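ugh ok fine here u go
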Amino acid sequence: MPFSWGRFGENLTTEGLREGTLCIGDHLRIGSAVLMVTQPRMPCYKLGLRFDRDDMIKRFLMSGRSGFYFSVIEPGEVGVGAMVEILTRDRCRVTVTDIMRLYLGQTRDPELLQRATNVSALPDNWKAQMLLRAQMHVGDSHS
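structure:
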């Protein structure tokens, strides 16, 4: 069943921007504003309430379509039909999907984890959680 725009509480809906192709730290111009991709979007309990489904958060996470947050680098006007242009790509090339897969334990790639922790745009709490989860998995394999 398709969902109407804004159904997930998003503030900005775009076409063509995907978690698997956008990297944390990428700079985009949308309309006259310049934005930077900072992190995946994580659902809270309200999502389950909104859809009246106990499994909605799990379904959301497993969909691979988390969405993502931007920070405003240069304020500007963004409206319906505004052009989207990728201005710069982050040198670490860690996608939003990569971060979610590390966070959820779907991958344990040490090289990817190292690159992810080097992404300056990614908040420290995300880095700490990914490192903690990686350490927990290492401990599990030696038990």
